[in-house]
Every structure is written in C-alpha cells, then in structure tokens.
Amino acid sequence: MSATAGQGRPAVPESAASRTRISVEGLDKLFKTADGELLAVDNVSFEVKQGEFVALLGPSGCGKSTILNMVAGLLPKTKGAIRIDGDDVVHGKINPKVGYVFQRDTVFPWRTVEANIGYGLEIAGMAKAERAAKVKRAIELAGLAGFDKNFPRMLSGGMRQRVALMRTLIMEPEVLLMDEPFGALDTHTKLEMHKTLLEIWERERQTVLFVTHDLGEALTLSSRIILLSARPGRLKEDFAVTFARPRDAVSLRETAEFGELYSHIWHSLGEEFRRTKAE
Amino acid sequence: MVGTKVKILLWQLVILATAFCIWEWGYDLRKVAALKPFVPSILDPYFISKPSAIWTSFLKLGCLSDPAGFIACFDKNPNNLWLATVVTLKNMWWGFVSGSVSGVLAGLILGRSDYLAKICEPYIVAMNSIPRIALVPLIILMFGLGDMSKVVTAWIVVFFVVFFNTFEGTRSVDRDQIAAARLLGASELTVLRTVVIPSALAWVFASLTPAVSFALIGVIVGEFIGAERGLGKLIIEAEARANAAEMMVAIFIMMIVGIMLAFVVRRVQAYLLRWQPQFERQV
Ligand SMILES: Nc1ncnc2c1ncn2[C@@H]1O[C@H](COP(=O)(O)OP(=O)(O)OP(=O)(O)O)[C@@H](O)[C@H]1O
Ligand SMILES: [Mg+2]
Asked: What is the pLDDT of residue A2?
C-alpha cells in the first residue's frame, strides 16, 4: 500500500496477497506553457495490485488524465518512477499488456462497428474466421448485435463508447486504463455501461485503473478509491470500497453502506471542488 | 421530393434553351432598329460564334462531314478533333496521376515528420508563391514541344494542390485516434495505413476535384505556348484564323471531358468516404 495513503478508512485490497501490477512513485508533471510553468501532478505515489479495480477520483483539471497518460507511456513524466510489472514505463513505448479507453471518442469513423472492434486483432494478423467469431461475441456482450455493419456516425454516444470499450477489451489486456470512459454519457446510459463493465470485470478480473470525477461511479465500480486534491494533483486519501460482489449497479446505490461511504468521501471531495472553484 | 426535382430540372432546361436561343438569334435582333441599343456587341458571332456554326465546325473538325470520307480526312489531318482530344486527355491523365500520387506521398511524409516539414517549409513556400503558369515557357524549353512538357506542366499544377491538402489532412489527424491505434498494437507503418491515410483521405479528395480541372488547365496552357498537337493547339490555330466556331468546339469538348472526370472522381470519393454523413446516400 502506498505510504502516503490518507486518514480515511484503512485501504485493504480485495486480495491482499496478490502482486503489484502498477506502481507509481513520487510522480511529478510540470507542463511548460506559453505563459509559464504549470504543475499538474505533484509527488503522487500509489500502487495497484493484480485484480484490483482502482478509481482515481478528483475534481476536473486535477491531473487525472495526465497521470493516466504517463502510466500508459503516452506522455513523458517530469519526475518519479512508473512501473508496470516491475518494468519502467518508457514514454512512446507501448506495453502490449496495457489496454486504454480514452476520455474522448476515439472510435475510427471510417470503420464499421465490427471492423472497429476487430481492429487490434486484424493488425495483429489473426485469421479472418477466428477474428469474426471473437468480434461477434464481443458485439453481443456489448449489446450491439445488429449494428455490426454500421458506421459509428449512425450510433449514439453510448453505443460508440461500447465500441471503444470492446475494441480494447477484445485484446484481453491484463492492465486496463480507463479515462472517464462514460463521462460524456447521460445518467441512464452510464448505469447501463456500469452494468456491462461490472459483468465483464467480475468475470475477468483485469487490473483496472479507472479515472473519474463521478463519486457514484467510483463507488459502484471500484474496489479502492484514490482521492486526488485539486490542482496540482496530490494524493489526498485512499479508501477501500468493500461492497460485496457481484454488484448491481442500480440497487447498490440504494444501500445504507453506499450512502454512508458516499457522504464520507463527498465531504473530502467537496473541499477539493471548492478549491477548484475558488481559483 | 420528386416534384421539386422535376421543377429544378425544368428550370435548368428553360435556362439552357433561353441561353441557346439568345446565342443563336440574339445578334439578329440588331436588324430591328428599335432594339439595336439593347443588343450588346459581345453577342456578335464574330466573337462567340453561334450554336449552328459550332455544330457545323464540329462536324468539319471531327471529319464527320468530309466528302472524302472519315478515314481519309482523319489520316490527312494529324491534329483532327479526335486525335487532339486523345492527346490532351492522355497528357492530362498522366499529369493528374503523377501530380496526385507525388502530392499525396510528399504530403504524408512531411505531414508525419515535423522535422522534415520544418526543413522543407521555406522551399515549399517559395515554390508555391511562383505562379505555376509562369514556368510553362521554361518547361517547354526543357522538355520540348512534345507531350512531356504538357505532362510536366499538369504535374506541377496538380502536385501543389494535392500536396497542401494532404499535408493539412495528415496534420489534422486526431492524435488520440493515433494513440488508440498504437495502444491496440499498431506499428508506425500500420498507424499510417489504418489511421492517417483513411483520416486524411477526405482532405485528399477535396483537392482531387479541383486537381482534375487544374491538370486540364496545365495541359491547355502548355499547348497554347508551344505544342504540335492537342486541343489547346487547335484553339490557337483557330484563333490565328479568327475562327470562333472552332474555338468553341474545342471548349465544348473540354467541358464534357471535365464533367466526366469530375463525375468519376466524385463517385470514387463517395465510395471511399461512405463513412462520412454527406456521402451517405450517394453510394
Ligand atoms: N499539454 C498540456 N499543456 C499544458 N497544460 C496541460 C496540458 N495537458 C493538461 N494540462 C493542464 O494540466 C492540468 C490537468 O489536466 P488533466 O487533463 O490531467 O485534468 P483531468 O483531471 O483529467 O481533468 P478532467 O476531469 O476535466 O478530464 C489542467 O490544468 C490542464 O490545463
Ligand atoms: Mg481528463
């Protein structure tokens, strides 16, 4: 567990014995912009163990995407260390074990739904028949059956995000990084997506680092919440989310434990939101 | 829906018929003294000929009315309408193909490499600020009066248009889409093939329709300045004889060629870009 973990509940991972997959130590990110320097991430350290679902929670602009991009190797870090399975993450070098779902819509508009989902398998050279079977299963799992041959522009935002999710999941990444994948969706669609994701994750148990600024979402999905402060992003607190699994995205929200933990973290988060506004 | 379509077509026909009537008989109205001030002298058939005369010239230039027969007339005149059209088309085609291919390649390479783009920038800006047509005499000096100089002229005109569009298109590819492809296992080359090119294709095609016209312009100007054959040469010869009808024949042929090629480009575009909403119904 990270030494800087906060004063909240003791953070106990769901399977304490498992090995560390992602480790972040003393991570800094300093952006050099036209009007000076901007410290986006300040001395952040945490670990994610095998099979954990960790939510990175914080107000908008606190550096969540920045952290995730550095973990994925998409952005150079300023200081600190990031390791995945003990190997240093090098900027620009993509780790095939890592899957990434973007905050923005990155579905390829010139590919049909099935060609989008099959993209990674196709470029890896998987035989057509084998690929088609896998894609078909993924499409069904995502509730997109019947839309196989559609281009993304004919899909709703929620459906496009499912395509993006399945496009990543079909590669069976061991470590899954997600940057507010449902941020742009309405509440109802979001809950649907939570169901789908929970279903898949509770079966496959990938190691997940999930960025969000939605506390309800973090509580519904994760087994641990790392709370970041307003910019510059610092580690504020670390909460274990111990609700029983399998979880039901809807009824979970009505339980007393949910409400209790919600208001507990909300208080802490509220301070950070106020700090963001005050700036 | 259908009603509107028919109406539009009807209006188009009315305008066409009116234009032809004015063209054919408009100048004759000058004979009526009262109307004379209202008939502009530009309608003089000496300048713009008239449809009936153009048709006669077409038959003559096309060897369709020669008493000696089509074959004899065709053989006798090395720059008859058909040969001239074929020569101009052929030169235009090669100029268009070489210009587009090299333009796309250069645009992709420089678009993907900031380093190379920075090195080449001043040269490209300098080259681009030369009016391409000003180079034609030089090109003819270098490549002679034959077909090569026309191909090169068309190439140089097409190249820059396609290059700039491809470059911009390559530059504006969504960085997150590239990152997404990389994270799904794509190599640099695969990214180019599966993300950059499809994404830049809309930009490339936006330049190909004008490029067709530019290729034709390039070839014709080349033929104006110095050529042995071709539609441009036909026009220059007719001009020497102050024969507006023959010039008009060549102009009409070019128009038809231009329309057909633009149509082909548009069909290919509609198919390749069928994922874009504006091409949804055209495939
Ligand atoms: N390329 C960049 N250059 C300069 N500043 C940047 C850059 N990228 C991000 N920032 C700044 O760093 C801070 C953190 O950005 P980041 O995108 O990580 O926020 P976030 O926590 O993901 O926010 P959100 O929830 O709105 O997505 C912001 O203040 C942002 O303005
Ligand atoms: Mg973000």
From this structure: 40
How many residues are listed for chain B in this entry? 283
- Phi first, then psi: what are they for A100, rounded to 5°? -140, 130
Tell me the whole-structure pTM to 2 decimals: 0.81
Q: Do residues A124 and A156 both lie within one domain? A: yes
Q: What is the pLDDT of residue A100?
A: 96
Give the tens place of pLDDT for each residue, B81-124: 999 999 999 999 999 999 999 999 999 999 999 899 999 989 98
pLDDT of A274: 77
Could you tell me which chain A residue has the CA closest to the CA of B278?
Answer: A153
Is residue A11 located within the same domain as residue A116? no
Closest listed ligand to the CA of A179: 2
- Pair (A148, A198) in one structural domain: no
Query: A204 C-alpha to center of ligand 2: Å?
Result: 26
Q: Are A219 and A244 part of one and the same domain?
A: yes
Residue A114 shares a structural domain with residue A206: no
My answer on whether A71 and A177 are in the same domain is yes
Size of interface A-B (CB pairs under 8 A): 58
CB A52 within 8 A of CB A224: yes
User: What residue type is A181 in one-letter code?
Assistant: P
Query: Rounded to a whole number, what is the distance in Å from the CA of A276 to chain B's nearest CA?
Result: 26
Q: What's CA A117's distance to the chain center, in Å?
A: 19
Q: Give me the residues of chain B with pLDDT under 50, please.
A: 283
Q: Which domains does chain B possess? A: 1-43 (no CATH), 75-279 (1.10.3720.10)
For ligand 1, atom 20, the nearest C-alpha belongs to A61
Query: Which of A37, A38, A236, when mutated, tests ligand 1's pocket best, judged by the most ligand atoms within 8 Å of its CB?
Result: A38
Chain-centroid distance of CA B92 in Å reads 8
| In a domain? residue A104 | no
- Chain A stretch 67-96, residues whose beta carbon is closer than 8 A to a beta carbon of chain B: 72, 74, 94, 96
With CB atoms and an 8 Å threshold, state whether B194 touches A119: yes
CA–CA dist B160, B163 (Å, integer): 5
- Residue B24 is encoded by which pair of tokens? 């054919």
pLDDT tens for B32-65 read 888 888 888 888 889 999 999 999 999 999 888 8
Q: Looking at residue B283, what is its pLDDT?
A: 46
Domain hosting residue A45, numbered range: 5-97+173-278
Spell out, as residue ranges, where chain A has pLDDT lower than 70.
Answer: 1-17, 277-279
Where is A22: in which H helix or E strand?
Answer: strand A20-33
The answer to whether the CB of A276 falls within 8 A of the CB of A59 is yes
Q: What is the pLDDT of residue A134?
A: 94
Same domain, A227 and A241: yes
Cα–Cα dist A223/A52, whole Å: 6
Q: Give the count of domains, chain A.
A: 2
Minimal C-alpha gap between B168 and chain A (Å)? 18
Tokens of A248: 């039901």
Give, as one character, the DSSP assignment of residue A185: S
